[in-house]
Write a structure and sequence with these properties.
InterPro entries: N-FG_amidohydro. By secondary structure, the protein is α/β, with parallel strands linked by helices. Helices cover 29% and strands 16% of the residues.
Length: 302
């Protein structure tokens, strides 16, 4: 059985490559044209984070896709390739463009050197998270530009280069590649229009993936007895924008899983239900792979 990489790194049966801050599984086996990525489940907090914190340490758990990496167990055990980040999202957000930087957080940074802030950055969740809703600023001091550049060059950029290389290898082997970017979300509040989804599939409204793949995931989730939505309220962010090339048969999807399906009532620790959600993810991957290998080239919407 595949085990928690934080605890037994280097002793898994799967072929794996340990990099600085992330682990790659299944590069050699590559049994399916699907790559799983988990960018936000990291629980490795460099000491500089705690030295710079204004908030209590436990508040940073809110930034984590708590234990979402455990949802890959069954897939990785089947030889499906995966890339799992270990450093905390508070260190740097792998699902943001490296230029999505809040310059007010960085000493001597010039706003003119960066694009206008996007919606996520204005909400405090840029390349390095700045604020938590209800708690305010995370940090008590500014960072040095050299520090931010080091985080990008040693961790953010290599993570994306690894995804790019894996998708290229996959596309060469199978003629198609599908990236599934796995996240977890807090339970969505009850909406007036109906019951909230437990899974959200995102394809950037048809821009990052041919619709038959995203529609297949939604259908399979519903057939498994769960509520699923497409693109609402999460359609996908930087990882999908950067790596999706559907006209070249490289597709990218985001999959959000309600944390209450596999964590305890405090949304802190995993329960025995991790296993069933992990199997569901593996079944979704299998369905995607079967459709990809059995279909002609599918093109995403313009």
């Amino acid at each position: 059985m595949w085990q928690d990489t934080d605890k037994v790194a280097g002793r898994c049966a799967m072929t794996m490559t340990e990099k600085d801050g992330f682990t790659v599984y299944g590069r050699q086996q590559m049994s399916a044209p699907v790559l799983l990525s988990v960018p936000h489940a990291g629980r490795d907090y460099p000491e500089i984070i705690f030295q710079s914190l204004r908030l209590p340490r436990e508040s940073l758990i809110r930034l984590e896709d708590r234990y979402a990496d455990l949802l890959l167990r069954a897939s990785v055990g089947n030889g499906v390739p995966a890339i799992v980040a270990h450093k905390a999202r508070a260190w740097i957000d792998l699902n943001r463009d490296e230029r999505d930087l809040d310059v007010e957080m960085v000493r001597n940074a010039k706003a003119s050197d960066y694009p206008a802030p996007g919606l996520k950055q204005r909400g405090g969740l840029g390349l390095v998270p700045r604020r938590l809703a209800g708690d305010g600023d995370i940090w008590k001091c500014q960072f040095e530009m050299d520090d931010i550049n080091a985080r990008i060059e040693s961790y953010h950029r290599p993570y994306h280069e690894e995804i790019e290389a894996l998708l290229k290898q996959m596309r060469a082997k199978f003629g198609v590649a599908i990236l599934v970017d796995l996240h977890s979300m807090p339970p969505i509040r009850q909406a007036q229009s109906g019951t909230p989804p437990q899974f959200v599939v995102g394809d950037r409204f048809g821009q990052s993936c041919a619709s038959p793949y995203s529609e297949l995931l939604v259908e399979q989730i519903r057939l498994s007895g769960y509520r699923a939505a497409l693109n609402h309220p999460y359609s996908g962010e930087h990882i999908l924008r950067r790596h999706a090339r559907p006209r070249s048969n490289v597709h990218a999807l985001q999959l959000e899983v309600d944390r209450s399906l596999y964590l305890d009532s405090h949304l802190r620790e995993p329960t025995h239900l991790v296993g069933s959600i992990s199997l569901l993810v593996a079944n979704l991957v299998r369905s995607l792979a079967n459709q990809a290998l059995g279909s002609a080239t599918l093109i995403a919407a313009e």
